[in-house]
Amino acid sequence: FATPAMATANNKERSFIMIKPDGVQRSLIADIIKRFEQKGYKLIGIKVLVPAKQLAEAHYEEHAQRPFFQKLVSFLSSGAVVAMVWEGQEVIKFSRNMIGATNPLASAPGTIRGDFGVDFGHNVIHGSDSLTSAEREIALWFKSEELAQYDLTMQAWTYE
Ligand code: IDP
């Protein structure tokens, strides 16, 4: 028998999730946030911003040598994005499952990209792909004081 307090030990994993400019322009913010909330994850950071090109380049630095890099960076800094940090058990891996494959046409129906996207370059959302990426991306987009520490009473009903 585990009390809710005991159960929180594994629930602190964090992922950086971003609704890209296409997702914002297509009014998908609420639908996307709703999926993470309904899954049982906790929103601990959120902001709307038009990323500077430098920030977009830093975010996608692993793709700097790829032919699509400039297009990708220009697109990300072309409009408002919603940058978020979500917390919960296995949130990194599970978010990637919720998001779907990089190519929306290869994403299963029911995933965010599978339900909302068509094209590679307009695939609606970003989610960290590993613990290392999550830590790097959260530090890049958020100051530590922008991340809220609070208890969600609902968690006692989400986690055993
Ligand atoms: P991910 O977003 O699923 O983690 P990554 O391989 O990290 O995929 O690529 C970052 C973003 O770059 C993708 O979300 C997509 O928008 C874009 N991208 C990736 N590969 C291609 C490509 O081959 N052509 C055009 N855009 C691409």
Automatic annotation (TrEMBL):
It comes from the Eukaryota. The active site is at H126 (pros-phosphohistidine intermediate). It is an enzyme of class 2 (transferase). Keywords: ATP-binding, Kinase, Membrane, Nucleotide-binding, Transferase, Transmembrane, Transmembrane helix. It catalyses: a 2'-deoxyribonucleoside 5'-diphosphate + ATP = a 2'-deoxyribonucleoside 5'-triphosphate + ADP; a ribonucleoside 5'-diphosphate + ATP = a ribonucleoside 5'-triphosphate + ADP. ATP binds at K20, F68, R96, T102, R113, N123. Residues 12-149 form the Nucleoside diphosphate kinase-like domain. Belongs to the NDK family. This is Nucleoside diphosphate kinase. It comes from Chlamydomonas eustigma. The chain holds residues 36 to 195 of 195 of the full protein.
